[in-house]
User: Fold these one by one.
Assistant:
Number 1:
Amino acid sequence: MKKNENGLSLSATDLVGHLNCAHLTKIDLAVAGGTLRAPTFYDPFRHLLQERGSRHEQAYIDHLRLDGLSVVEIPGIGIEDEQVARTREAMVGGAQVIVQGAFRKERWVGRADVLLRVEQASGLGSWAYEIVDTKLSRETKAGTVLQLCLYADFVGGVQGRRPEYGYVVAPHTAFERQPYRMDDYGAYFRRAQASLVDAIAEQTAYPSYPEPCAHCEICRWSQSCEQQRRADDHLSFVAGSTKLQIEELRRQGIDTIASLAEMSTPLEWKPTRGARTSYERICQQARLQVQGRTAGRVLHELLPVEPGFGLAALPEPSPGDVFFNLEGDPFVGEHGIEYLFGYAYDDGGVVSYVEDWALSREEEKASFERFIDFVTTRLEVWPDLHVYHFAPYEPAALKRLMGRYATRENQLDALLRGGRFVDLYSVVRNGVRASVESYSIKKLEPLYDYQRDVDLVDANRAHFQDRSSSRA
């Protein structure tokens, strides 16, 4: 979203952003108008995604070249008159592939990843163009379809007819194009466009608030929006609260953590949606969080004992117990990779820890086999052992690896059927109430006196920078 001599220009990014968060549109308008400065911060994860996205796009272009197609690349990163004119010239000239074609139509601007020539009549002659978008996601999202629809409008304006199909190329599909019929999404696209245009026209009138949403994970405004929610004592910071519960509480005049902490229980009103007990539970959670803020430390209290739940779900300890954690990267290869198998165990009175790194498919398979063999062998000595993990990721990942490599099926099946895996997240969530905003293991560190030498944000930044420098 930028202001120029012709007014405000809009892009597919603005359209997708508005679809996810109306507040994003309002603050982007303030930046375009010069009343607000955009934040500048380095997000290593977003930087890595951008890098991988660029590599995927380049790999597809190289694939087209290997197929014998000639490629015309539109230089630069802007959408100036020169880039727009070059794109039109390439289309009129019948180029087989046009990369980063630049377009402008009324207030809308954009650059399409790839335009492919098809032998169909259009205003250009006996040929026309269809749009191909390269995306890292294995599942096409609504925003991607909106982007294709906007580019279809651009291309249609040049060649005299709208492309019938737009395509998405996901990683590790042998560059197979997933087709999307543009007319099937036309009404949705026009409605989204109209919504953004109306929001811009009413920018001083329509209310907005930085409610948390999925788009926060990739939004440059996420930190400043979180700061505002913290200043407002927003209910989203109550551990375990849901959007549905927050909306219901607001209808009852409860819109801060402090006011929720003071809500009387048992509940005196009937929720329109959800059970009374769920609201009473987050009320108690808010109460403890407020107490923890006042005390300046993490507080906790044990929940009532219930057979089979919480601490009562823990088995008897065994000298053979194993504490297991996996670290994975979902964007490596076709199915991601589990790159670090970490497990601790008692080795004759001394705690031993295994760091088994896997940076290739062969190493991943070997690491998986070593871990399963280790536990199986250990069972022969301590038949009462259990494997402890936090949250359900580890057993699910082991099952995926077993299926991927068709190995250790019987051993893993025996471990699963024997109830050897114990999820400590479930134990903690059902056994302890703590004054934390999330029951992730990192938020609970103060309860078991774990002290970090390096802050997590700094560790992530160093990790991504090291990986980038190693590729340079």
Note: DSSP finds 15 helices and 15 strands in the chain.
Number 2:
Amino acid sequence: MSSSIAFLGTGLMGAPMARHLLDDGHAVTVWNRTRAKAEALTEHGARLADTPGAAVQQAELVITMLEHDNAVATVLFDMGVADAIPEGGCVIDMSSIAPHNARDHAKRLGDRAISHLDAPVSGGPKGAAEANLAIMVGGDPGTFTRCEPFLELLGRPTLVGGHGAGQLAKLCNQIIVAVTIGAVSEALLLAASGGADPAAVRSALAGGFADGPILQSHGGRMLDRNFVPGGPIRMQIKDLDNILTTATNAGIKLPLASAVTDLFRTLGESGGSEYDHSALLLQLEKINGSARVGTAPDQLPDPD
């Protein structure tokens, strides 16, 4: 049965996700801060809204896929969305934000008789395009059951706990991603500096305990020296900052996450904020002087 859905945030990830909902026959109204990104979806049957508040007026379900905490809060509470959603509606925030902010949003929406799930994702643009995202969901089990069929159109949803738990799971994901990018960078740099062929070493590790998506995908980018994002370093730093804040609030220390945060932050502050996060290799090469992985020229994003 077709449902009325508002999709707010149709960028690199959001656009293919909205497409999957349209392809399943749902009535989808889209909004994006950069209008052209939402307008492109009208060719696939989406309705275009001029404001986020207008987008949600008839929506049973509102999905947000926005860049950071402030963007989510601004769209929900400062741009008319929370006031315009019909009573009984539901917001699924698929952005990556801090757990305490997700809990706050759930409470504020609940006070308006609007249900809420925090449901950040992992899998990148490829996972979004293939509807194969890992979807980590926090919220009420009944709300999850009601929304699960929609989430299954986008990937593999798993309820991991109450409000904020989805965002906490995403931070766990980002610890593993960030630290593993650092480990792969160091491994390939060691191989190159020690006299082995780093590409051959990567192939030799395939199928062993060190193998995985980071070694294959990000390791491949490092070997090709392709640092056009992908996932930009500024977003990695945003997630790492949320990780360290959440750890502090929980009274625990995360020394590996702290160390890799410093490396990413230094690279971002020296002009690499828009590089793909696999470009952490560049910071390790800089620390090591003349050490370098491969001979290909660096592929970097065009400066704005």
Note: The longest helix spans residues 165-194.
Number 3:
Amino acid sequence: MEATRIGVHENKVRFVLELDRTLPYAAFLLADPYRAVIDLPDVSWAGNPDPVPASNPLILGYRTGQFQPGVSRVVIDLKGPAAIDKIFRLDAQGNARNRIVLDLKPISAQAFDQTARLESPDWKGRGAQTRATPAPATPPSVPQGDGRRVVVLDPGHGGVDPGAIGAGGRL
């Protein structure tokens, strides 16, 4: 990845990834907290992320890194619920590099719950979900032991990251 840009428009915020080659992508949204995610095949991240313009109404910040082997990820932290208005790829022309363009628009929390995963036809992503799955209302039953209490910490992040998995394979 070469660079990023954020543009503030009347009804949307545009997030642009500049790339050294054409890449397939998958994009989706997560809640608790609100995030937009772009998955890409393995890429090298060049330089530091550009600052987020204070005038934008949607983006708190963003980070990049390797999500899992073969998949790089851009996570865009949002100030509130948003929808992916458009996402598309532009091929290099003249001095312009290859780009992936993501347009976000603010929506209600109720409308956010109705959003769906968007992806380009040539990239299937690697296991990303449409939305974060809420935790079960009651914890799973635990086999009876010797009477000692067990405290379990789950540092999960939601979405495709289920958090810690116990020795018995339980989440």
Note: Residues 126-139 have pLDDT under 50 and may be disordered.
Number 4:
Amino acid sequence: MLLRFFSFSLLFLPAALLAEPLKIVPRADWNALEARPYAEQKPERFTIHHSGVRFEKDQDAAKHIANVQKWGMSEARNWSDIPYHFIIGPDGTVFEGRDPKTEGESNTSYDTNGHLQINLLGNFNEQEPTDAQLESLTKLIAWAHEKFDIPIDTIKAHRDFAQTACPGDALYQDVENGSIRKRAQAAIDQARAIKN
């Protein structure tokens, strides 16, 4: 399967930054519908979400993501696309969502302009995020920091901006206590040390 991200044939951080490249499954591989026009943005902060429904490793993440997009673009929500810029499955697979240079959408009331929305599949009030999800989240944040110049200290959760339990207590604790930020910063620092 050919992996690509927007105009790239393969998305990855520089080899020095990660032991293994961060691969992102393109929209075509999860049968995404064509997005409708929506507002442009400059990604300036990281916002972490969960899907809010239990998700197990043996479930078909690509099919689930396609169904979320179809529901969101239907009369039920009338969104322009899947609401998130990236989605991470339980096995750590990262899926391309909407273009990061366009505003995300939400079931809750807050201004999504400038937010790079990352969704982890699962209900983290009922289950724990997998180690693979957290590792991919770290790599994705490090990559997006380099790609879009998004400050690492902007990492927040959906519940920090809206009345919601998202991203669930088990994932929120990693956002709130700074462990996700520290892991991403460590990856960036290590890469810079190797580069110099």
Note: The two ends are 35 Å apart (CA to CA).
